[in-house]
């Protein structure tokens, strides 16, 4: 195991997130990356997450003795879960479900923390605290806990993102056709949201790695470059396209972090002439799966969304491109077209996208 350096971008991110959480009066949008460390994080070499320890302390960047690593691994999965007011406070501000996070405060956790000279440290979903440092009733304790919870989000893909049920219009009544309770509707949207995040993260990472390789002078992967040309009209082997490729990566990342934040609101099923602030009245008709208005965080879901489970994730990520970037379906610049960006992300994930593609031209 390796202890992350104290100046690691993920430490900066955790500090920034902890401060943001402490400033919040009520839940607001949470971005995954801190603005001042995005450039650093692009260049950071990250250790495999299963061997990385992130800690709050004055030291870092060293290998953990094998004996201590064994003790940490033996303790993982034990501890207790967050409960009550503390769990509610953190989940509402992060927009994340921390049910699988384990808190360790026993004598073993104290001893391990002392051996690492840490106030607290995190490995995966396990957070270990030194003596007297787990004090979530105090401001300093909340700040430290928020810092470590950020590390669980950074390290573990098993921390499930939440769609806040207060942001779903039919949370109390549910739906008919399909017959779903309010809780089932929220869960279905949350599942689609989590899948959309996964698709976007894969597209972002794949394209960024490919761009880095191209800049280094390596030939592009033919299959990926074909998808890029067909969907976004860009070519990794064309140096003149690389700035626009980076713009596309940035846009994909913005949509992903928006979904991760729990910022969106959902109208469970729209009808005719739905008024959204900033746009003309719009209806759920024909082949419409959902619609949204630039600058408005409400996504209106249509019957097609519920009738087509395999299209739900793509629908949600598609609409966020509209919200952030005012992307017109008729835009002939593929890299500025929501359908093209959806098609790119899903094809990179190996999905058959049918009409949700710009391979035959911008939609």
UniProtKB/TrEMBL annotation:
Domain eCIS core positions: 82-157
Domain Lysine-specific metallo-endopeptidase: 240-324
Superkingdom in the source lineage: Bacteria
Any single Pfam family the record assigns to this protein: eCIS_core
Gene3D superfamilies xrefs: Collagenase (Catalytic Domain)
InterPro entries: eCIS_core_dom, Lys_MEP, MetalloPept_cat_dom_sf
Record-level Gene Ontology MF annotations: metalloendopeptidase activity
Transmembrane segments: none
Protein name as catalogued: DUF4157 domain-containing protein
